Input
Amino acid sequence: MSQRGGTTLLEHALLGLLYEKPSSGYDLRKIFATTSMGSFSDSPGAIYPALRRLERKGFVQSRAQAGSGRRRQVVSLTDQGTAELRNWIAQPVTQQEIMSELREFMLRFALSESVGGPAVSVELLSGLKQELKAVLSSLRDQQKALKPYLPLSGSLALESGVRGHEGLLEWCEHALAAYESAADR
Amino acid sequence: MSQRGGTTLLEHALLGLLYEKPSSGYDLRKIFATTSMGSFSDSPGAIYPALRRLERKGFVQSRAQAGSGRRRQVVSLTDQGTAELRNWIAQPVTQQEIMSELREFMLRFALSESVGGPAVSVELLSGLKQELKAVLSSLRDQQKALKPYLPLSGSLALESGVRGHEGLLEWCEHALAAYESAADR
DNA sequence: TCGCTCATGTAAATAGTTACATGATTCC
DNA sequence: GGAATCATGTAACTATTTACATGAGCGA
Output
């Protein structure tokens, strides 16, 4: 189930949220449930096991909240967990990642600034830009080659893919510009 | 594992390919491996079991290719399989489907014209358009609400989502126009 | 004959899904 | 006291992944 070295996308999302602040499993579930965060699962059967996996790996530690009211297990990042998060975010962008809908990229990028600073964000963006160009040109080749054999709906579907990536490239340049002008100030 | 009624996205993709022409598991694998078809798995451990599931459900039947050379198990759609495909394609578009990256929508749409005719394609497009507008406005609300609390990379990531959906809306109108002008001729 | 590609499959492991279980606490 | 919600978890099931196994035909 796509564990590139043993840590899931969901697990990285959890690490990212815990980086902001220590939380309980229930808190995390609610974040996924309400904010449509890249559409992760908010089911307890996904989150609680994932948290325990992270604990087993030494990336988080959980302790019962002292004293007050309800039973609550607060989970927080360890140094090792922070390191893992930092490392995962700074990974170079691959074409495969772009083809498989780039949920992973967007999560990494969204976290990059808080966790690694703007230089990491910019690095990711320029990596994306480069790989995107390659993907786009091969996508356009495929489109040209297949067009005559497809029904209108088929070639329109392909076109939506190409347009999507073109739009992404524009966004990428926009984002780079935003970082540049932020640096000027 | 997201089986809305028992049939996977991969399984539907296989049905779609078999609708075009009967093929062996190996053929299908190669299609996934070479054409980056929405990025489905080309692993035998995914495809052969999926084909057997489809057979169990009565959607396909497989027979050894007669005579010649290499061993080859050719799989073809049954009437029941065609019905399932047709039915799945014509399902209304949901917001949830849009949020979860619309791989499913695009597959349905790509197949819609061959399997159901242009009217079905147009129906899907106008369904998408309508739901997209709803999704977009709630997305923009969320963006506005969260912006002040996020680092630049976070709000840029959100913006990429919004832009992506805006681009999709444009594509949607473009596609509708294409069908209109095709109907005129 | 040696190696490559064709072609089909199995096995173990894992993550995620749905659904259920269980208590404690707050609100009325 | 009763209902809703907080909060954590488990159990059964399924699809997919990686990796391996096997054998047949093809080209040099």
Summary: The CA atoms of residues 146 and 155 of chain A lie 8 Å apart. The mean pLDDT of chain A is 88.
